[in-house]
Amino acid sequence: MKYLTPLKLSIYSVMLFSFFMLESPVIMLANQIEPLLMGIPFLLVWNLFWWFVLTALFLVAYFTNWGSPTSTPESATKQH
Amino acid sequence: MTGSLLIIAAFMIIPLMVGVLSARQSQETSEDFFVQGRAMGSIAVFFTVAATWWSAFAFLGSNATFYTNGPVFLTALAWNLLFGFMYYWIGKRVWYLGKRFNYLTPSDLIGDFYNSEALRITVAVITLIFTVPYLQIQLTGGAYLIEVASGGLIPFWLAALLFYFIIIIYVWIGGIRAIAWTDVIYGALLFFGMMYAGYYISTQVGGPAALFSQLQQTSPEHLTMPGPNGTMGYPMWFSLFAITAIGAFMGPQIWLRMYSVKHGKLFNLMPFLLGLAAFAYVGSVLSGYSGVLLEPNVENPDQILPIMLMEYAPYLLASLIMAAGASAAMSTANSQIHAVSTVVTMDIYKRYVNREASQARIVYIGRLSLVGFSLAAYIMALTVPGVLVTIGIAALAGTAQLVIPTIGAITWKKAHPTAALAGLWAGVACVLLMTFGPLSAPFGYHAGIWGLLLNTVLFVGLSHGLHRRDTAVVERFTQARYDYDAEYHPERLPAYTQETTSAANYK
């Protein structure tokens, strides 16, 4: 946590939360046919919604270098 | 009938020509044959990773699972996203180390970091043993499609033989470059085919909304877990998610597609692209569920899609979509054959048989291995029956075990070879005993999940208790990790000063 930038922390938090909504036992709360949305069963809508959130997040992550600053020549030349 | 045979012929010949053309750029070196000189560009990387990752398991297995077991395969949306994320988070580190230390196989990285021959051999054996059944299901799936599309004119055995004949020719001459080029065609066909097949077939019952409405009235258990058979509840939902993504990601064919990449920045984009492509599964939802209404009594569920296409779509369209399905199988099979031949050549032949082998000799042995493994998979497809998804998951559960020592190698200096070896053996034994042996997997979770759990506990526990004495190797990797972070994650650099007791180690 200590070495995460605020942006990186946000990206990883939203990602973990979205995976939690899809793959934890919480999914069983969405395991129902109704309410139908535009004729689509609720379980499918739930999955498509979180899929959309994660896909959009990955696009944001790409444009923001996954929350990492771009490297400086100084840091790149340091040696261990 | 003539039209569909022409489509099948084109499907066979066009990739062959592309493969031959791509071979013009080849050089007779092992690095070029196996990882395209680590210079694969972004379009080829996306298509070859996506087409390799999406297989007969996705194209036919998904429809079959919606058809027989209800919505559990919806978890595929999440596993595609997990696969994409791993390609970024693990893949980029593997790529960096591969480039730095000149790796070609999974054993190269794991064997080098843990400095252990036993581990190197174990990893090679796991990748070989568990890849062949997965290869077998590609052949089976592809041959089903060709057999149905030709109206039975091309029997299963001949379709499978044709398949492998074509693959061997272009991989023989072009190596991974030929595969990547053909995968661009296969990938485009595959995604088009899945989406359009689902949309088209659902129009036969009045469109998607009408499909769900009718299904709700006639078979509502198909729309919620645990499905009509009552066996596919949350444990299987989670198991499929974890095992499929991790198992496929750890397959040698995907490792080669990490090592081959030219620029690190491409890894940042792949989670988005691979996640976006997952939308094609909506096509499988529609076609699998349409099958419940239109063809409720199909004996072999893996054939539900081809059967519906032949029944309800115009003949040429049906053939084209089935060629797309065969693309899914072919694009995975070609990569797997190439990958296992790489493992045999580099991890076994070059390391233990002939260390002084010339570049030309290595490429030649790689080509001979292609033929040998193709033959093994062909014989298995003809003699070992089974449902695609069942065989596929068992194979993926085996390769998934590699993820634990891999994460250890790329992130943790305390990771110990004995711990990695014990974890791997225990994990694989657990998978085998619970899949084929007397034990049954508890609480409905797949054997692979229990294998991963046991593997993790042993790996972490033993690594904490043991100490590595080969400090030179550990330091070499710590330096590499430092350099990686300096280039891509500079915010993490202060962590290195925390880790060491002596600030003098840093300039």
Structural commentary:
Chain B: It catalyses: L-proline(in) + Na(+)(in) = L-proline(out) + Na(+)(out). Chain B: This is Sodium/solute symporter. The complex is a heterodimer of chains A (80) and B (507). By secondary structure, chain A is an all-alpha fold. Chain A has three helices and no strands. Chain B is built from 23 helices and no strands. Chain B is globular. The interface between A and B is large, with 45 and 53 residues.
Helix content of chain A: 55-70%
Mean pLDDT of chain A: 89
The main β sheet of chain B shows up as: none
Query: What is the CATH homology-level superfamily of chain B?
Result: Sodium/glucose cotransporter
Outline of chain B: globular
Distance between the termini of chain A: 22 Å
Elements of chain A, N to C (H/E): HHH
Number of strands of chain A: 0
User: How does CATH name the architecture of chain B?
Assistant: Up-down Bundle
User: Please, how many helices of chain A?
Assistant: 3
**CATH class category label of chain B:** Mainly Alpha
Q: Can I get a quick summary?
A:
Chain A is an all-alpha fold. Chain A contains three helices and no strands. Chain A is 56% helix and 0% strand.
Topology:
The complex is a heterodimer of chains A (80) and B (507).
Chain A: H1 6-23, H2 42-63, H3 73-77
Chain B: H1 2-22, H2 30-35, H3 42-53, H4 56-69, H5 76-89, H6 91-101, H7 106-114, H8 117-149, H9 156-203, H10 208-218, H11 234-249, H12 252-259, H13 265-277, H14 281-294, H15 304-312, H16 315-353, H17 359-383, H18 388-400, H19 403-411, H20 417-435, H21 447-465, H22 471-488, H23 494-499
Transmembrane segments (chain B): 6-23, 43-60, 72-90, 118-137, 149-172, 184-202, 234-256, 268-292, 312-330, 362-381, 387-412, 419-437, 443-462
Catalytic activity (chain B): L-proline(in) + Na(+)(in) = L-proline(out) + Na(+)(out)
Membrane topology (chain B): Multi-pass membrane protein
